[in-house]
Amino acid sequence: MRQHKFRNYFAAFLVLASTAGPALGQPAPSAETGTEGDSRAAVRPLAETLTEQALAEYEAGKLLFGDGDFAGASVKFQRAYEISKDGRLLWNKAVCEKNLRHYAAVLRLVRRYQQEAGPMLSEADQQEAADLIHAVSNFVSPVWVTIDETGATISVDGEVIGTSPLTEPFLVDMGSRQITVSKPGFRDYTQTVQVAGMSELRLSIRMDRESVEGRLLIAAGPGETIFLDGKVVAEGRWDGNVSPGRHNIRVTAPGKEPYDSDVEVRAKETRELRISLSSLSKNDGGGGGSTWLWVTGGTLLVAGAVVGGYFLFKPEDKPAPMSAMGTIPPGVVQMPLIGTWR
Length: 342
Hints:
It is a single chain. This protein has four domains: 3-138, Serine Threonine Protein Phosphatase 5, Tetratricopeptide repeat, CATH 1.25.40.10; 139-205, Sandwich (Immunoglobulin-like), CATH 2.60.40; 214-274, Immunoglobulin-like (Sandwich); 287-342, no CATH class. It is 31% helix and 24% strand. The protein has helices at residues 3-11, 46-49, 52-66, 70-84, 89-99, 103-116, 123-136, 288-303, 305-312, and strands at 140-147, 153-156, 159-163, 170-173, 175-182, 189-195, 201-205, 214-219, 225-228, 231-235, 237-242, 245-252, 259-265, 270-274. Helix 3 runs antiparallel to helix 4 (70-84), helix 5 runs antiparallel to helix 6 and helix 8 packs antiparallel against helix 9 (305-312).
């Protein structure tokens, strides 16, 4: 099959409504036959100029296109182009993108086709490309984007368009489009815009730096007061951002043992503390100091009679007489538990 006839076979699928120009499915004069004096008459068709792998990709693209798999055909024609660098393949890819309703891609591809394959195109070929551009232009809008940060990546529907600053607008298809701007160290910016086609859009975007704070969640009991770094922040529960580093947490409530501890929070880390305060015993408060001393003294005595005796008696005090040697089982120290320590 000759290249130009195959290209016109593609063009038959490009019937777009256009009041300013003819339908784009009409056969055009072939560059192979040409007219008298046409320097392009000697241009050979793709099927004759492509070699080995590029030709195989090209033929696979034709099969996929004929089967209605336009996305697959587009991939194959792109691959054939990458191997051969023949600009005429861009036309085939543009037709596939048109059938996928990717009109902005069609415009980009046809304009590249005009530039790269220009010397191989007849006047009819050039007119055909111009007519397609005119028709498809009704279905896209140019978008100007201004960003306050350089080096930010701009994407439309997940496809990277370029990097800021942009010196010219980019084209988007009509419909609902999602524009995303991203840069390391900044929060991603995302905006959904409605594109009607033909009209111009302008966006001015301000990037916000990404927070390096950590998050701290403290869960205490109802009515229990929560202190963060010495300041009261909540009762019962607190959830908020904190700077990276060490922070003091204190939780108090009437009649309960207070909680006091430090916690380390790293950047972008979430730490959760669940705190349960214990109730004070009946002996705590008022004379609680005597009870605590008694318990402490008892503990020390159990740990060792000599150490316990040292702390429980003043230097001038004399220890109580000990029981007769040999009458106490090994490891047991007896102590009177009657009376109150002063």
